[in-house]
């Protein structure tokens, strides 16, 4: 019935209903037409926007890097004709580059120091566009013949480049250390490669040796370099070396305390608001969760620290290095402030007088003198000769002024005096101020002259497979008496020693980041490994053994794991004794050979144990394709161990000495003989 009723209603529509329906249709039509027009209009403009708007940003993004990364354009704009590039890991090469660029004004030339990471080095082919132009390279070698981090791109470019550098004039000073296998590899390579690409060398390659006297090597090279430049360009020195300030002091009396740096390495407030990724310019603040003394006796303090890296997204591999930013001893900072009669809590900025320079400040500014001397400046190493030269003008006593000038000179007598009075006596800036009572430099000039306090690197003593949220450090505190009777303390190790877990929060925090290493376990766990690491050189091998134990637990076939360790006394400084015994018991550590150097009349070192087991060593290397790892002192131990391997290879491989040397060198090339050493 209801259906019929509905049908009847449809059939019997009144005229009023018809009019209403017509009205509804026309309104719907209008709405639909309006919607279509609106959608079309929106689509048209949206499409137009999409086509046109990206054009401007695209033009800008292409243009900006060219403008920013062209050192040629910058040199033209600022009237420079000498560019000094530096490959620097610890700041010394950068310091030398700054000194050379500053020297240029004495010869009517203008120089600029440049970080190769910030520029396109392909522009070297255009340097001849500038009159009397010259490129100088201060190149440090890092690790086992590697470029420094900031010179890696330049090194890669040099290897691949087929550029024509025939118009380029250049000179190279290398910074290296003779105790390392690949002495000055980077300096030698840059010098050779630039010549291969057609560049003209205007002065011989300088080879600085940090195991000797790097400062003297640099001065000797520099005093012959500039006459060669003068002869080449037909210019003369315009006058004596003079003190020219690079930065101007601005004291802040009314400044927002939230805008002041308090020790951060890069971004302001980065320690309060931590954001990954963490690196040299943005370190992670890791909590110290363990700090225990490892040795049972003796005068030294050997320690094991554990840093918590939870929630940092930091990843590491066994064999990597952890870099730690330390702080200077507050008592040294206070003494400098007292001698100079300065309020260390003054807020200031040092602003570069060269407005075009990429380096606006020598360290993060604005900050206080206290913060600068605590976190940013190196106040414990003997200052270099250029610092003494600049300070001389502030000595009121004529004798002290003359002494400072003499030590900064290139005369043989001056070099000898600098070597004995500063280097060998290990006089830092505080000791110099104490021993020269009339010397009162303005603190801002002193802050400008002192080099930056550098991060310290430690071989990581843990495996991320076992400790994904922690990084372990094994270190010995450095402390020694100088010839002047002063007690000098290592900055980082003494600072770390005082990092007590859960000690009022902040005091147990360590700014750190991870630096990748080539010191790696073999890809196949079944490959045998021979690890040689006396003293704290055992650090990476604790990580290696932890990882091999973990692999074994995963059911992997793990090859022979052999350790040669050495210390002074079995009952005093046998590090990780309990852990090593446990690993041996579990069958992970298949051989544990320990040399106690001072427990008997004749000293016994790791190389003596290698000789005792020479047949087994040769079998592992020759038949088992074992990988060899050496960690520790470069000056004596690493060299003695390498010579021992030459002897073993010569004897059991029936080779001559040169053939044995070549055999070991080939192991190194193949990554089967790896070094993680320091001097």
UniProtKB/TrEMBL annotation:
Coiled coil: none annotated. The keyword Protease does not apply. Its cofactor is FAD; FMN. Pfam families: FAD_binding_1 (PF00667), Flavodoxin_1 (PF00258), NAD_binding_1 (PF00175). GO terms for biological process: response to hormone. It is an enzyme of class 1 (oxidoreductase). Residues 82-226 form the Flavodoxin-like domain. PROSITE patterns: FAD_FR, FLAVODOXIN_LIKE. Keywords: Endoplasmic reticulum, FAD, Flavoprotein, FMN, Membrane, NADP, Oxidoreductase, Transmembrane, Transmembrane helix. Residues 281-522 form the FAD-binding FR-type domain. GO terms for molecular function: flavin adenine dinucleotide binding; FMN binding; NADPH-hemoprotein reductase activity. Its EC number is 1.6.2.4. GO terms for cellular component: cytosol. The chain crosses the membrane at residues 24-45. PANTHER family: NADPH--CYTOCHROME P450 REDUCTASE, NITRIC OXIDE SYNTHASE-RELATED. This is NADPH--hemoprotein reductase. It comes from Baryphthengus martii (Rufous motmot). The gene is Por.
């Amino acid at each position: 019935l209801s259906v019929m009723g509905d049908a009847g209603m449809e059939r019997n529509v009144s005229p009023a209903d018809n009019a209403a329906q017509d009205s509804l249709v026309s309104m719907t039509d209008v709405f639909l037409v309006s919607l279509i027009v609106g959608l079309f209009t929106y689509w048209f403009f949206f499409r137009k926007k999409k086509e046109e708007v990206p054009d401007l940003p695209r033009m800008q993004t292409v243009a900006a890097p060219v403008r920013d990364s062209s050192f040629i354009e910058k040199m033209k704009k600022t009237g420079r004709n000498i560019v000094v590039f530096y490959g620097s890991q610890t700041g010394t090469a950068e310091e030398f580059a700054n000194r050379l660029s500053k020297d240029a004004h004495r010869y009517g030339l203008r120089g600029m120091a440049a970080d190769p990471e910030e520029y396109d080095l392909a522009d070297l082919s255009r340097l001849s566009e500038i009159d009397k132009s010259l490129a100088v390279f201060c190149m440090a070698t890092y690790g086992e013949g590697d470029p420094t981090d900031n010179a890696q791109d330049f090194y890669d470019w040099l290897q691949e480049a087929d550029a024509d550098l025939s118009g380029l004039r250049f000179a190279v000073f290398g910074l290296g250390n003779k105790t390392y296998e690949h002495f000055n590899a980077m300096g030698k390579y840059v010098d050779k490669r630039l010549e291969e690409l057609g560049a003209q060398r205007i002065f011989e390659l300088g080879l600085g040796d940090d195991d000797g006297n790097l400062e003297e090597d640099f001065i000797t090279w520099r005093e012959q370099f500039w006459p060669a430049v003068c002869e080449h360009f037909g210019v003369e020195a315009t006058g004596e070396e003079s003190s020219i300030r690079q930065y101007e002091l601005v004291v802040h009396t009314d400044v927002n305390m939230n805008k002041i740096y308090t020790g951060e390495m890069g971004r302001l407030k980065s320690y309060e608001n931590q954001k990954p990724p963490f690196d040299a310019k943005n370190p992670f603040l890791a909590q110290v969760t363990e700090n225990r003394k490892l040795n049972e006796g003796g005068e030294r303090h050997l320690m094991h620290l554990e840093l918590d890296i939870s929630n940092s997204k930091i990843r590491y591999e066994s064999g990597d290095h952890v870099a730690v930013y330390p702080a200077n001893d507050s008592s040294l900072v206070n003494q400098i402030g007292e001698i100079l009669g300065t309020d260390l809590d003054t807020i200031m900025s040092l602003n570069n007088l060269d407005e075009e320079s990429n380096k606006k400040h020598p360290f993060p500014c604005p900050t206080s003198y206290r913060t600068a001397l605590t976190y940013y400046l190196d106040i414990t190493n003997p200052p270099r000769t250029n610092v003494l030269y600049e300070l001389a003008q502030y000595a009121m006593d004529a004798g002290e002024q003359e002494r400072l000038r003499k030590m900064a000179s290139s005369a043989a007598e001056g070099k000898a005096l600098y070597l004995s009075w500063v280097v060998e006596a290990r006089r830092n800036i505080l000791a110099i101020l104490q021993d020269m009572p009339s010397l009162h430099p303005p603190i801002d000039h002193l802050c400008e002259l002192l080099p930056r306090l550098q991060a310290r690197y430690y071989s990581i003593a843990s495996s991320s497979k076992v400790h994904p949220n922690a990084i372990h450090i094994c270190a010995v505190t450095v402390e020694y008496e100088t010839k002047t009777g002063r007690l000098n303390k290592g900055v980082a190790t003494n600072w770390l020693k005082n990092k007590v877990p859960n000690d009022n929060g902040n005091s147990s925090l360590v700014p750190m980041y991870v630096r990748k290493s080539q010191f790696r376990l073999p890809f196949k766990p079944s490959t045998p490994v021979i690890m040689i690491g006396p003293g704290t050189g055992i650090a990476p091998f604790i990580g290696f053994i932890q990882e091999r134990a973990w692999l074994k637990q995963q059911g992997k076939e793990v090859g022979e794991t052999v350790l040669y360790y050495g210390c002074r006394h079995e009952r005093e400084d046998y590090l990780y004794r309990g852990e090593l015994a446990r690993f041996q018991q579990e069958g992970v550590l298949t051989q544990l050979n320990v040399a106690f150097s001072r427990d008997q009349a004749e000293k016994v070192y790791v190389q003596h144990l290698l000789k005792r087991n020479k047949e087994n060593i040769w079998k592992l290397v020759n038949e088992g394709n074992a990988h060899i790892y050496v960690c520790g002192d470069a000056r004596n131990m690493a060299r003695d161990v390498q010579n021992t391997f030459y002897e073993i290879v010569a004897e059991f491989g029936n080779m001559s000495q040169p053939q044995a040397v070549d055999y070991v060198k080939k192991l190194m090339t193949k990554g089967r003989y790896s070094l993680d050493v320091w001097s």
